[in-house]
Write a structure and sequence with these properties.
The protein has one domain (2-102). The chain is of the alpha+beta class and 115 residues long. The longest helix is centred in the first third of the chain and has 24 residues, at 2-25. The protein has 3 helices and 3 strands.
């Protein structure tokens, strides 16, 4: 039963990423797109926004199983900035485990959801 729940959670996350990508492809990327760090329950997250329209609201560390927020404001800032840079380069702003490791983001040792 627990494996089925994990599989459903993985498919939900993949669906969310697909929806975000589709919404971002319709959003003109210009110098008005920015990111901000947000305080969430038990930690930090980030948002990408165009003018004041939020296009990505990220409360948990991407790729990592579970609902773990960033442990520090600095980690959320570095990850949000990378997502924005990917968007500016015309890439899908998906964060990978390699991205987290290269940014030296602290996260709990868990299974990887998407990589």
């Amino acid at each position: 039963m627990q494996n089925i729940i994990k599989m459903i959670n993985k498919k939900i996350r993949i669906g969310i990423i697909a929806v975000l990508f589709l919404s971002l492809t319709h959003c003109q990327v210009d110098n008005k797109v920015n990111y901000r760090v947000i305080r969430v329950e038990n930690g930090w997250g980030y948002e990408l926004y165009n003018q004041e329209r939020i296009v990505i609201h990220q409360e948990i560390i991407p790729v990592i199983e579970g609902n773990n927020p960033f442990l520090s404001r600095k980690d959320a800032r570095k990850t949000g900035k990378l997502a924005l840079q990917k968007l500016y380069k015309g890439r899908i702003p998906v964060i990978t485990r390699q991205d987290l490791d290269s940014l030296k983001i602290l996260y709990p040792e868990t299974d990887i959801m998407i990589d």
